[in-house]
Amino acid sequence: MAGSALQFALQKLDSLLVNEQQLLRGVDTGVKDIRDELECIKSFLREADAREDRDGMRTWVNQVREIAYDIEDVLDEFVLHFNRPHGHGFSGFLHRGIHYIKHLGTHHRIASAIQEIKKQVHNISQRKDMYTIKFIDNGTSNATTDRLHDRHMAALFIEEAELVGIEKPKEELIGWLVKGESQLKVISVVGMGGLGKTTLVRKVYDHERVKGWFSCHAWITVTQLFTIDELLRSILNQFYRERNEIFPGRIDAMEGIQLIETLRHFLRDRRYVVVLDDLWHIQEWDYLKYALPVNNCGSRVLVTTRIRDVGLSCLETCGHVCNLQPLPPAKAWSLFCKKAFRSIPGGTCPPELEDISHDIVSICDGLPLAIVAIAGLLSKKESSVLEWRTLLDNLHAELANNPKLEPIKRILLLSYNDLPHFLKSCFLYFSIFPKDYPVKRITLIRLWIAEGFIESEKGETMEQVAVDYLNDLIDRNMVQVAEHYDYGRVRSCRVHDLIYETILLKSKEENFSMSLVRKKTHMHGRIRRLSIHNAGEDVLQNTSLSHLRALFMFGVNALSASSMGNLFYSFRLLKVLDLEGAPIERFPIEFGKLLHLRYLSLRNTRINKLSKSLGKLENLETLDLKGTYVSELPTKILKLQSLRHLLAYHYYTGRHPPFYHTNGVKVPQGIGRLRDLQKLTYIEANQDSGIVRELGYLTQLRRLGIVKLRKEDGVNLCASIERMNNLRSISVTSIGMDEVLDLQYLKSPPSDLQRLYLRGPLETLPNWISTLQNLVRMRLRWSKLKEDSLRVLQVLPNLVELTLIRAYDGVQLYYQKGGFQKLKILDLEQLDNLNYVMLDGAMPNLQKMYIRQCVQLKAVPLGIEQLVNLKELHLFDMPEVFVQNLRRHEGADRPKVNHIPIVRSYDHEDRVYEEL
After folding, report:
1. pTM for the model
2. What Gene Ontology molecular-function terms does this entry list (predicted)?
């Protein structure tokens, strides 16, 4: 990880030497000397960084890292004081002279700091010669640069530990859940860490038979920081959300007995399943059990724990214990080969590696997490017996003394040490977030870029490189996919519990980040990144954080407006500030002092207006105002020439959303000057036609959202879109339900467009849509299209998701054979005239179908019985006669849907659903 800090310091030095020589004023020689010394250290460090646990090397690496941090601080402080525009000519010269004299004391202080750093760097450079490390030419450098290799998309979404060895316990658990006595039953899955308890139970929990059998489902990861009240609220929240019901605000104010009584009342006559994942203490169960009524409805509780006594104690009088065992040798070997030899057809082990591979599998002792981690590490290395034997020797020493959790952590540290330098900081960033926290993919990418972790490459944006970094971490089995879109892209990710604990230890050791949880903790040393979890307002008072580079707050009570002034004055070197959900109502003028800020999230705060001080944040790359009430962006925003991602909108959240479901913002004239913008959502187009024309200058845009578009602006919008060759997603909403979206003028749409969202009347479906070969998701709302106008969509080769909301006025929808070959999700809503849907062999891969408020629909789609891959059919507010025909034992159309595991009818008015 020191390599990342050093590389960034070198980049800073290069920038200062090349672009800011006029500011150095006598200290440039010192800066150049530092740069030369660091460059000599750099190549040595990259090898030493991976072996820092040997022979005192860790101390040396830590010293290099801290020096790199100090260099960054000093240079940023220098730029903060001296890199200010002063104009040109004599006037500019005069202003520069006055500014130099005014800050002469600061100048000398910084010069002295640079000289002190120069001495330290020289000493460290000399000390490195004391260490001798024998480096084997193992091709690591080639592996490091070869990030971009063929990845099968499906591999990103499979948890490897579930691929082998769980078939028998999975079927056993499913049987215990859906069969047997009607009384409440507790099932405990017991085993040491790394055996795959969570993976097994998640697979069971998500199984079709389990999902369809229970009416209420809740999954709780029991961290050691939770309170019982929080756990009970989380269970209730999941039950309400699953039933599409609004979570009552009064529950947030409840405690203890009130929460227990509320949960018991909610579950009184319902068949529920609750998973308590990673339970550590029986006292927690002794409290929770009173909230789960014994209602004789066939309810079940699933517990996973590493402690056998806890698992047995939860059973009391009725239940089962599943003692999860390590994988038998054959299963362990199969799992190892699948991961270690993924690039070889059939995952076959080469003959020359069989002996060494069997030795490695034997040492892993059937622990799936250890097998996956080691195999993932080896898959990145050259397939040589010598290289694998070296790794085996290290593993032997780590595993010999303790076969439980600690060796797994050490194995995972081997995976960490094997990471190229540019991935280590990215991986450690997960230490900032709470345990089991699903981190949005796009958020992670923006944060990595803001921190300077991404090394841009020729022909690629930093965002593209960051995606490759994340894919590499997933590929190495160090990061898991938490959620993905149906069209394949990763939506959020997390790290396994054991890996998370390892990251926390490594993060502390590397002085990478610190977390404050619930209450104030004594902080010492130079803290670089700080995350605050559910702490009070005074947690940062009387604390020196002058070296802080990133601040995150999880929990609404972490910050108050009154405490901002002094805090942000001391955060002058801050790059990342995430205040999502903080109880602030105004844009603090103090933000204008954060001149190095690159990432600012005010998401879901109460802010409704931005201050002019925003214009001082000239390094800002991401401004996230989603969920705020900001309706207009100030002219000063045009000063933010580094801005790449601008999110400013909020959704209507009531029960009956109006036509303007998304509220955007007004932008100033000149928005086209922000040439680096990649995401712009959502802007109001009705204020001025010039705004729509200016969008054509934003040629780097990958996502664009526009609301309130007028018909006469269609031609200008099409002209602008034609210039956006990088566009991947576009959303357009007309100014009203009677205002036509006139988008026929787009002759050459962006070839890589993947997502298209149109809200508003269409006289006809634009012809250019048929050319979108890469389109995966499409939503049409209020289109009011006529008969046969949707046929063009059937030939789109990669369309995965299609949503039609008031989009079609015809009586019949006919999808011909061979159409929609890759469609997985079909959503039909409020098609008021629709009588029949005929599939005729179309949509062979459809998995989910939603039919909502299509009141004239006479029957389920003709040919639905041919959809052998259809797993879910959801009906919302459909006529009673329609629903009646699908009920078991009595419905005339029931035989047509018997092959579908989940068939449900929802009543939005009463917020209930019925299993059909």
Report:
1. 0.76
2. ADP binding
Alpha carbon distance 299, 183 (integer Å): 7
pLDDT at 901 exceeding the cut of 90: yes
Three-class DSSP labels, 158-186: CCHHHCCCCHHHHHHHHHHHHCCCCCCEE
Residue type, 280: W
- Whether 168 and 325 have beta carbons less than 8 Å apart is answered as no
* CA dist., res. 683 & res. 704, Å (int): 9
For helices 441-451 and 462-475, what crossing angle results, to 10°? 120
pLDDT at res. 34: 66
How many whole angstroms separate alpha carbon 581 and alpha carbon 630? 15
Distance (Å, whole) CA 485 – CA 492: 9
Query: Residue 492: helix, strand or coil by DSSP?
Result: strand
Task: Give ∠ CA 167-309-190 in degrees, rounded to 5.
Answer: 15
667 CB-near residues (< 8 Å, 6+ apart): 633, 637, 683, 684, 691
- DSSP-assigned letter for residue 818: T
Q: Is 826 helix (H, G, I), strand (E, B) or coil?
A: strand
What DSSP designation does 532 have? Answer: E
- The three-state secondary structure class of 336 is helix
Amino acid letter, 74: V
Closest C-alpha among 395, 386, 397 to residue 367:
395
Alpha-carbon distance 422 to 7, whole Å?
9
Instruction: Please give the angle made by the CA atoms of 388, 391 and 396, to the nearest 5 degrees.
Output: 120
- Tell me which H or E stretch contains 493: strand 490-494
CATH number of 166-323: 3.40.50.300
CB 2 within 8 A of CB 50: no
Range in 129-133, 325-329, 352-356, 741-745 with the lowest mean pLDDT? 129-133
Structure tokens at 483: 């959620």
Question: Is 309 exposed, middle or buried, given 0-12, 13-18 or 19+ CB atoms closer than 10 A?
Answer: exposed
The two tokens of residue 160 are 């490897």
Report helix, strand or coil for 515. strand
Average pLDDT over all residues of the chain: 81
Give SS3 for 55: coil
Would you say 685 and 713 are in contact if contact means Cβ atoms under 8 Å apart? yes
Beta bridge partners of 779: 757, 803
Measured between its terminal Cα atoms, the distance across the chain in Å is 55
Pairing label, strands 185-190, 216-221: unpaired
Q: Judge whether 710 and 735 are in contact, CB under 8 Å.
A: yes
Asked whether 703 and 682 are in contact (CB, 8 A), the reply is no
Q: Which residues of 136-160 are buried (b: 16+ CB within 10 A; e: fewer)?
A: eeeebeeebeebeeeeeeeebeebb
Decide: helix, strand or coil at residue 133.
Answer: coil
User: Measured between alpha carbons, how far is 713 from 693 in angstroms, rounded to an integer?
Assistant: 9
* Separation of alpha carbons 759 and 783, rounded Å: 7
Which of 683, 747, 759, 699 shows the shortest CA–CA distance to 719? 747
- Quick check: 292 pLDDT over 50? yes
